[in-house]
């Protein structure tokens, strides 16, 4: 029977059996792969910073787990599913990589998840956020660690709807992630008395957003919602500013990272609401870890990069607790753990792979409010996982007992 058609109870039973059969580290080394965008549109929000984050997690464990060395490897998937799949196969078959993390662009995550399931290896998504990975494509060896499109939309859309912003127009990246973010946000808008007045879908990646912005302006919608990410979001916001969007219309990025705010500047970003899993200046724990990251990169971490740290650290701790690196046993341990570290708070991993945890509703500061570099956000609310995460999707076989 395939792993992805087992219920939660069967997963636990398999894990116990796996532990009994495969105690210890399979090849005397624990190898973590970071499959990311090292050269393209998402390299700033993930990229080399995600590699550093995984290395910091390994260092925190003393570079070893169960007495065996932890090795971090990385590669550029170029945001292409076929390249990601080929890299993953090579890692699993030739380099004995045990877990792969990150995955900017959800299409790369979906491609690799299936290979990992077949080979009984673990995938942990930090920047792959489409809710499709929690539906019919769900896998018992996958965790969507940092956030998903529903949680992102729930935080930001609900805040704007409460402010009376009822009509929306979407500018959407025309691929899996953009469609997922648009769909989830549209559902939340409808459930809270709003309406979607129109949608424009742009090629991925995009450079010229002028025609889409003009259509959104012409719609008269209260909110111009950006269902994209990275440089696409930055370019769209900059061009919206050039076209004079403002006043009665609000530009709302549904996924924006601190690196994006840095790129566009507070003058253009001020007042925007964002929903994030992590902010470096949230509390003493987040500041202490971010200082270590900054020392190595000279940048503050994005939520995606911080998520790679949390995922890698939790994975290594689960190996330690399970006494083995066998995927089923490790995933069972992760589902038993409460994840509470410098990044993720009050996290519990569901059978379908969703890590449900607290999220932050943030608002970008005015330039005069910022006291130093990277001091970008006011924390407006802490949102519990129960408030913003979707209910388990019945399309995922793992949700069926």
Looking at this protein, list some descriptive labels:
401 residues; alpha/beta; Rossmann fold; six-stranded mixed β-sheet; 14 helices; disordered N terminus
Characterise this structure.
With 401 residues, the chain is α/β, with parallel strands linked by helices. The chain folds into two domains: 3-147 and 283-353, 3-Layer(aba) Sandwich (Rossmann fold), CATH 3.40.50; 150-276, Rossmann fold (3-Layer(aba) Sandwich), CATH 3.40.50.2300. The chain contains 14 helices and 15 strands. It has helices at residues 8-21, 47-60, 81-94, 106-119, 149-162, 176-191, 210-219, 230-242, 258-264, 266-269, 284-297, 303-322, 327-336, 385-388, and strands spanning 30-36, 64-65, 68-76, 99-102, 122-125, 142-144, 167-173, 195-202, 223-227, 250-253, 273-276, 348-349, 355-356, 359-364, 377-383. The strands form four sheets. A six-stranded mixed sheet has the order 2-3-1-4-5-6, with helices on both faces. Helix 1 crosses helix 13, helix 2 (47-60) packs across helix 11 and helix 8 (230-242) runs parallel beside helix 9. The chain is globular. The two termini are 15 Å apart.
Strand and helix map with partners:
Layout: H1 8-21, E1 30-36, H2 47-60, E2 64-65, E3 68-76, H3 81-94, E4 99-102, H4 106-119, E5 122-125, E6 142-144, H5 149-162, E7 167-173, H6 176-191, E8 195-202, H7 210-219, E9 223-227, H8 230-242, E10 250-253, H9 258-264, H10 266-269, E11 273-276, H11 284-297, H12 303-322, H13 327-336, E12 348-349, E13 355-356, E14 359-364, E15 377-383, H14 385-388
Parallel strand pairs: 1-3, 1-4, 4-5, 5-6, 7-8, 7-9, 9-10
Antiparallel strand pairs: 2-3, 11-14, 12-13, 14-15
